[in-house]
Write a structure and sequence with these properties.
Oligomer: single chain
Number of domains: 2
Helix content: 40-55%
CATH architecture of the largest domain: Alpha-Beta Barrel
Radius of gyration: 19 Å
Number of strands: 8
Structural class: alpha/beta
CATH superfamily of the largest domain: Aldolase class I
Number of helices: 14
CATH class of the largest domain: Alpha Beta
Distance between the termini: 28 Å
């Protein structure tokens, strides 16, 4: 999620913490403007407009520069640092970032230790990982390496990189990881509904949950998980939020903080995920996915909103 979408989703309620999209770290000291672009919440005491705490996430393979840039993020206001060792994207893995590093237990230990040693003692360091690159049997060794290097919490996406996002998520591995570690283990992967979370909990034993695509598909998912009596979102609620998102993206465009292509890509991405959350989602996504004109896209969305009233 970018900052406008984080603002909308966390305003729904139920979310305890949110994380930036990963900041890609190469062998250089990134300028402060990069962190502010990925995390405008830094200027709001590291909170979204509705008050949900926010932190910066880093992705990279150079221990020294991961540490240097983690310090910059903390100096700018991030109350904790999250390290991404779970991204399955081919372009990221080809440049030695994300889940490809799970093949190198010694390296992920060095990266984590270097960042931990550089940070003030009161700044939590957390890690996001997958079960492995192509072999889930390495998951406990990697998890122990992160713990030994000083991570205070581990979020585990219950699939390997080669599993991508194909169901099912292998939640049972999380129970083994949790029982091997002393730090908190957070479950992640393939939770779209309250029933999914119940099955995830029964399989993993993890009491804490991170949701990503599920939160985009159903912005009220966290609230539904916490309060089964909460009124679920209707399609009209989603369309209203979609219009607010378009307005926020338009503000970014007018301030010169994004281009037209970004606005169109982002709205299509959200509509794509909505197919999992709402029965009406597939038809609306089909209607806009090939459109390249912003006015045409918002016209289709507004037409759908009128029809839904």
């Amino acid at each position: 999620m970018d900052a406008p979408l984080r603002a909308l989703v966390t305003a729904v309620g139920g979310y305890d913490l949110c994380t930036s999209e990963f900041v890609r770290v190469t062998p250089q000291r990134l300028p402060e403007r990069v962190f502010r672009r990925f995390g405008p919440e830094l200027a709001n005491h590291s909170k979204t407009p509705s008050g949900t705490p926010f932190r910066i996430q880093l992705l990279g393979s150079d221990p020294e520069y991961m540490a240097i840039n983690a310090l910059t993020a903390v100096r700018l206001g991030s109350p904790s640092i999250d390290l991404n060792f779970g991204c399955p994207a081919k372009t990221v893995n080809k440049s030695q970032g994300g889940s490809i590093l799970l093949k190198q237990t010694d390296l992920i230990h060095r990266i984590t230790r270097c960042v931990r040693d550089a940070l003030p003692a009161d700044i939590p360091l957390t890690v996001k990982m997958r079960l492995g690159y192509d072999d889930p049997s390495v998951c406990i060794d990697n998890a122990l390496a992160f713990q030994d290097a000083g991570a205070s919490e581990l979020v585990v996406h219950a699939r390997t990189k080669t599993d991508a996002y194909r169901p099912p998520a292998h939640w049972h591995y999380l129970r083994d990881i949790r029982e091997a570690l002393d730090i908190n283990v957070v479950a992640n992967g393939e939770v779209w509904t309250r029933d999914d979370w119940r099955r995830c909990y029964e399989s993993s034993g993890c009491e804490h949950l991170m949701i990503g695509r599920g939160a985009v598909a159903r912005p009220d998912l966290a609230m539904q998980l916490k309060d089964p009596d909460a009124q679920p979102w209707q399609w009209t609620d989603f369309l209203a939020a979609l219009n607010r998102y378009w307005a926020l993206l338009t503000q970014l465009l007018e301030r010169g903080e994004c281009n037209e292509s970004y606005r169109i890509i982002r709205i299509k991405q959200w509509l794509n995920q909505s197919q999992r959350g709402f029965d009406e989602g597939p038809a609306l996504f089909e209607a806009v996915k090939r459109l390249r004109d912003a006015d045409a896209i918002i016209g289709v969305i507004n037409s759908a909103a009128k029809s839904a009233r």
